[in-house]
Amino acid sequence: MALSGLDIYKHLPKENCKECGLATCLAFAMKVAGGQATLDACPRLDDGAKAALGEASAPPQQLVTIGSGDHAVKIGQETVLFRHDDKFYHPCAVAICVDDTLDGDAMGERCKAIGALSFDRMGTTSAVGLLALHNTSGDVQRFAQAAKAAAVASDKPLVLISPDADALRAAGEATADGRPLLWIKDAVENGDAAIAVAKDLSLPLCLEAPDFDSLAALAEKARDAGLKELVLSPGPVGAAEGLSFLSQSRRAAIEKKFRPMGFPVAMVAMGEDPVETTVDACWYTLKYAGIIVTNLSSPEQLLAVLTTRQDIYTNPQVPVQVEPGLHTIGDPGADAPVLVTTNFALSYYSVESEVESSRIPAYVLAVDTEGTSVLTAWAAEKLTAATITEALTQCGVGGKIDHKKLILPGLVAVLSGSVADESGWEILVGPREASGIVSYLKNQWKP
Q: What is the number of structural domains in the chain?
């Protein structure tokens, strides 16, 4: 049973040294009890107290690492149900299906295509994280050979899926250096053998069973056997049932501190209708999935899932920002326009995208407004004549161009006079929305 904050406090030094980053030992104890801090953050805690508080120091959800080296994928170790309480820490991993029935050339082409599924959005690269190899053939040796071929053809960590523990052992041994995730289907029948395999190979294990109680019992058995890195899955269920399981398991882990369910959950989003499958995958992404195994393969479908993931795993308490300062688009010359915006990522990338579409090389000056949008920054007095002039002076754009014309966003046209007075530049009022930039640059801009 999880300890309360007061139970933990009894074992702390009670020196209020603040070395943990909190004002008092009691505040630290409450954070540990809530799963938002670990005992390692207290440098003055002795080994005896750490041993006594071991259960409380463990996160409510276990961290699981799949793969090794630079391409390793980490899932789990989440601490909250709702993102406004704290951010979500480890984005769910998207795993694309591959059958072990593919021959060598087809396997290589499939892996290459999966590796190419990468997208840049708002300055962040999002990509497929895992390759899920299914033991469709039912053959132990073919599965092992396919796993080895996939490991050679792809740098993505593997998820090895089979109802046969012997097949998992053979494939796991063939790819052990890459630290794949073993996934045993029908774990109610085959779980014991799979637990033994995962223990022998020191690999993470996914247990698939159709209901909450069965998975809790299997997870407890695996924990008793010494396995720490587990993933739980209800298997290929309908969207409503899948969302229910995700909520139930997350609440059990976070609110009830029910240790058998304190592991990330893997969901299966596979179907003949790609639109329905895409929607299911997006729902699972939003509602706590740690892994999503899917047969989606077209870029437009996966982009929807990866965009949803990027949005939900950003920190809601910290605006998404770009580096403030002068940014070049294309190869701007001495007559290039200079446009002003803020360093709020959405504002900046909207402007950048439209300038690129105009095919007119330009400079974009991102003023440091602590990641707030144009109107918000103006209202908060973070986008002012003084801050624009300071950014203009520091970036040195005046030495790169022959004119002294600055294009302000139309939403803050009211600043044009004061910016002109403060900076000495000629101020032009641009469009109110980024969508008008292409027309403005082509039809109205004159150096």
A: 3
| Structural domain containing residue 36 | 5-57
Which of 214, 208, 201, 216 is CA-nearest to residue 168? 201
CB 108 within 8 A of CB 98: no
Tens of pLDDT, residue by residue, the chain (447 residues): 456 788 888 888 899 999 988 999 999 988 887 767 778 888 888 888 877 776 656 778 999 999 999 889 999 999 889 888 878 889 999 999 999 999 878 998 999 889 888 888 877 888 999 999 999 999 999 999 999 999 999 999 999 999 999 999 999 999 999 999 999 999 999 999 999 999 999 999 999 999 999 999 999 999 999 999 999 999 999 999 999 999 999 999 998 889 899 999 999 999 999 999 999 999 999 999 999 999 998 999 999 999 999 989 988 877 788 999 999 999 999 999 999 999 999 899 999 999 999 999 999 999 999 999 999 999 999 999 999 999 999 999 999 999 999 999 999 999 999 999 999 999 999 999 999 999 999 999 998
Do both 80 and 225 map to the same domain? Answer: yes
Residues 303 and 330 in one domain: no
Among 280, 274, 273, which residue's Cα sits nearest to residue 301? 274
CB 184 within 8 A of CB 162: yes
Whether residues 363 and 422 fall in one domain? yes
**pTM tops 0.85:** no
48 in the same domain as 69 = no
99 with 191, same domain: the answer is yes
